[in-house]
Amino acid sequence: MKTSIATVSISGNLREKLEAIAAAGFDGIEIFEADFIADYGSPRDVGRLVRDHGLEIMLFQPFRDFETLPEPARSKAFDRAEHKFDVMQELGTDLVLVCSSVHPASLGGIERAADDFHELGDRAAKRGLRVGYEALAWGRHINDHRDAWEVVRRADHPNIGLIVDSFHTLGRKLDPDSIRSVPGDKIFFVQLADAPLIEMDLLYWSRHFRNMPGEGDLDVTRFMQAVMATGYDGPISLEIFNDQFRGGNPRTIAKDGHRSLVALMGDVRRAEPELSINMPEIPVRVEAQGFSFVEFATRSAEATALKTDLASLGFEQVGQHRNKAAGLWQQGDIRIVVNEETTGHAASSWNARGTCVCALGLLASDAKAAATRASALGAEVFAQPVSSGELAIPAVRGLSGSVLHFLDDSADLSQVWQMEFSAGITPTGAGLTHIDHVAQTMSYEDMLSWSLFYTTLFDMTKAPMVDVIDPDGLVRSQAVEAASGSVRITLNGADSHRTLAGSFLSDSFGASVQHIAFATSDIFETLEHLARKGFETLPISPNYYDDLTARFDLNDALIHKMQARGVLYDQTGGAEFFQAYSQSFGGGLFIEIVQRSQGYTGYGAPNAPFRIAAQKRLSRAKGIPRT
What we know:
- It is a single chain.
- By secondary structure, the protein is an alpha/beta fold.
- The protein folds into 3 domains: about 5-270, Alpha-Beta Barrel (TIM Barrel); about 290-420, 2,3-Dihydroxybiphenyl 1,2-Dioxygenase, domain 1, CATH 3.10.180; about 430-620, 2,3-Dihydroxybiphenyl 1,2-Dioxygenase, domain 1.
- Helices cover about 35% and strands about 25% of the residues.
- It has 21 helices and 24 strands.
- The strands form 3 sheets. Strands 16, 17, 18, 19, 20, 21, 22, 23 and 24 form a 9-stranded mixed beta sheet that branches. Strands 1-2-3-4-5-6-7-8 form an 8-stranded parallel β-barrel, surrounded by 6 helices. A 7-stranded mixed beta sheet has the order 10-11-12-9-13-15-14.
- Strand 1, helix 1 (about 15-25) and strand 2 (about 30) form a beta-alpha-beta unit.
- The longest helix has 22 residues, at about 250-270.
- It starts with a strand and ends in a 5-residue tail after the last helix.
- About 50% of the residues are buried.
């Protein structure tokens, strides 16, 4: 089964698009008429260019407003079709997409449309071409794939077939299972797009908010199950209209698109194992079971400051790497690697960004399967030389060039801390038990890409996107999380450098992790312990606590206790969430300490504006950069 993408789906001129599409691993393209017309090459030159990139032109599109027109418009429509056929033959493609008419003069009628397509099929057959008919969700008379199929069925011509598009079916809330009744050989092409569920005009929704399968809310998997049940074995193609993608990096968007198709067809295969799917099988989504470690790249005086910060949080060094200038700090199930190497990945990260999180380790149900799946989904495999006594830990490149390592409970990988660090007994600490979540900051345009990365690689789901109000702008935040809650990652998209997230991104030259949240079972006891170690929490405005009294039924003693320690509070359905923040930390990061009661699934989003205001106020008071 071949993969394809419409050239309209990504930014750039046609030649830039072809380079990106080929690099992503697609087999072919839908050539969008506007992209072809804008190019300076002849149709024959463009066709040759496409093939020189190792691609096929699988579809020429779109041909509009063809069927059920009165004369003389009907004759003119056939003349236009003949001209398109000329172009197709020069390009070297045999299939054209005809979308259902929106022409105000179109007369409608299934039989009339079928007659038009039968005649068009005769003309196409003389040239060895085929015609696919697609129902636009906003078509004047035909806006349902079932009616489009009826037109094709009555046209009864071997060169006329159906084209189905997930957006046009699912966007109208049509039952995709109705596709199962269509013979697979009469479906000539399949187009795929997802979209967030937004109540708006169908045409506007389609033209601006489509995205890759898995990035939206439509049940594209069920749609493809229905298509594959027909016996279809033709191309699967992406047709995406998205304002964000039009301004994005074409290579990134194309890579995401190919990843989405590979993941989608794997999901379809697992949903209905009896279906015949002619694509390589990849390992199933891997269960993310927890954070194994966080690795900091640091050096010199910054390393000393970082170690002081860790000690103030109750961490102790429990091991030293046998071959590297890297120490292991631990508390509860939290492991922090402080890497001071002058060569290798950590050194490169420090040279580029100063002290930063350069790697994350995730516990997976199967580390090798996670790496294999990640590679199949287009992730860049990471490896560096392994010295004596070290383990080769499976890893891929993550956000901003950071590294994502995979560990599991296998006999070798589970011994990494003893083998490489001679780690001993876990220190008592201050009550921090595990990593609740890690916050990654990126440009807003990268958010869809990284949510797709995590949710296609791991068995994780997306929480609804929320807007975080910064005094100097808006930051969009979306969490991806394992069903068990063992791994939570918040993705924060910043457009303005004036926001706290945006300034961190620019000042750190794209460091991936802005803050880490550590969990405790008793936040007040932990903070009391940490205060004795010199840990200072972020001071919160007294007005916040006055408002808290009005919003929640909390007793005065608890409110006073919270204010004394800079603790913020949220509650949903009776489930409580307490959180406090550090004042500053190595490399412009900050630390969060949370107490999460069972049933609370959020991240204290209502408190974010007050936390950000407090951080900026403290930065101004100390005369330091806003990060």
